[in-house]
Design goal:
By secondary structure, the protein is an all-alpha fold. The protein contains 14 helices and two strands, in the order H-H-H-H-E-E-H-H-H-H-H-H-H-H-H-H.
């Protein structure tokens, strides 16, 4: 067990071992709870579908950050203690709940190279009339069930009684903040790009991505381990710029790997979302190019020539270089936030390692 190697510093090798224990724990969780959903063929089948959906190969950024932070702040250096592992599973289930609902909202058809959950359910219905709406409806309800499982995991994680309420409150705050960020993203989508500021997009990113992707997992791991309030505050100040940089990196990677000829490729560009990349491009284009970009963003369905032109305009604007520089500034800001007596040198080094891990995952 990893707990027997308390003196080991965080490393890619150690994180791979923690990842392996997490995957085993996730499989055991679904096997252990299967009997609870013996409510007939449809529900039992959907439960198995959910377990397979969660098991799809993913980066597992959130549970790895939680477990990594727990090991850094736990007195025994245990990166895979049972309470932390249960909370990490709950966090991954929260992520699953959000993905299932997001895919319905965005009408996405693929997730991790496979059908989204609502499309998977739709396929089960064959040629039945109304299968699209039924698939979406069932997916929404399944997402709610998964969220309930996530809360149960954290509530029953087994952390000391004096931390239990604060940990659960922090976990629920991730959900409300992420939901508010989702609402803001939808609302920004209704407005002309000229009337959406870069700071509004950054604020939406902070709520929708930063809090539950980076800050929340790190804080939860530290709180479960009994970290001081001063240490938790330092983690928050460190995590916010890291999370924003992570989202900017995702925007850049999606744009650079965008393939318009692939009808299954899901892209914020295709969906007309107001991303920081699009906003920065709009800010730097001339009036004629701005008008064309706006016309494309307002179009309900973009043809291939228009998409290629939008890509050319974004590259022409120099927005990519601007955001690359912002990422570097954000990572520097995160590093400086660790210069506090609330953290030990080992904890600072461990958090910097986790920052680099997030950075490497964003570039995959």
């Amino acid at each position: 067990m990893l707990a027997m190697r308390a003196q080991r510093a965080l490393s890619e090798e150690l994180l791979r071992e923690v990842h392996g224990e997490f995957e085993a724990g996730l499989q055991a969780f679904f096997a252990r709870h299967q009997e609870r959903y013996a409510y007939g063929e449809w529900v039992e089948s959907l439960y198995l579908d959910v377990s397979e959906y969660v098991a799809r190969k993913g980066k597992r950024i959130r549970p790895m950050l939680l477990l990594g932070a727990h090991g850094l702040f736990a007195g025994d250096g245990d990166y895979a203690a049972a309470p932390a592992m249960r909370a990490a599973i709950g966090l991954e289930l929260l992520h699953t709940f959000i993905l299932i609902h997001d895919d319905v909202i965005d009408r996405s058809e693929r997730r991790r190279g496979l059908p989204t959950f609502h499309k998977h359910v739709e396929a089960r219905l064959g040629s039945r009339a109304g299968r699209e709406r039924v698939g979406q409806s069932i997916a929404l309800v399944v997402g709610d069930v998964v969220f309930a499982l996530a809360i149960e995991c954290v509530a029953n994680a087994g952390c000391p009684e004096d931390r239990r309420g604060a940990v659960l409150s922090q976990f629920l705050a991730l959900t409300t903040e992420t939901g508010c960020g989702e609402i803001q993203e939808i609302a920004l989508g209704l407005r002309d790009i000229s009337r959406v500021s870069a700071n509004e997009i950054r604020h939406m990113y902070t709520l929708k991505t930063t809090r539950y992707t980076v800050e929340g997992p790190l804080v939860l791991g530290a709180m479960l381990a009994g970290a001081s309030q001063e240490a938790v505050q330092a983690i928050r100040q460190f995590a916010e710029p890291v999370g924003l940089a992570f989202q900017i990196s995702n925007d850049l990677q999606e744009f650079r790997h965008f393939e318009v000829s692939d009808p299954m490729f899901q892209s914020d560009l295709l969906e007309g979302k107001k991303t920081l990349l699009v906003r920065e491009a709009f800010e730097r284009l001339n009036e004629c190019d701005r008008s064309f970009l706006q016309l494309c963003l307002d179009s309900p369905s973009l043809g291939e020539p228009s998409i290629h032109k939008v890509g050319e305009l974004i590259r022409k604007s120099g927005a990519e270089a601007v955001l690359e520089e912002e990422m570097r500034r954000l990572f520097d800001e995160a590093r400086m936030a660790l210069d506090t007596p609330a953290l030990t040198p080992e904890q600072r080094e461990g958090l910097l390692f986790l920052k680099d891990h997030v950075r490497s995952q964003a570039s995959l």
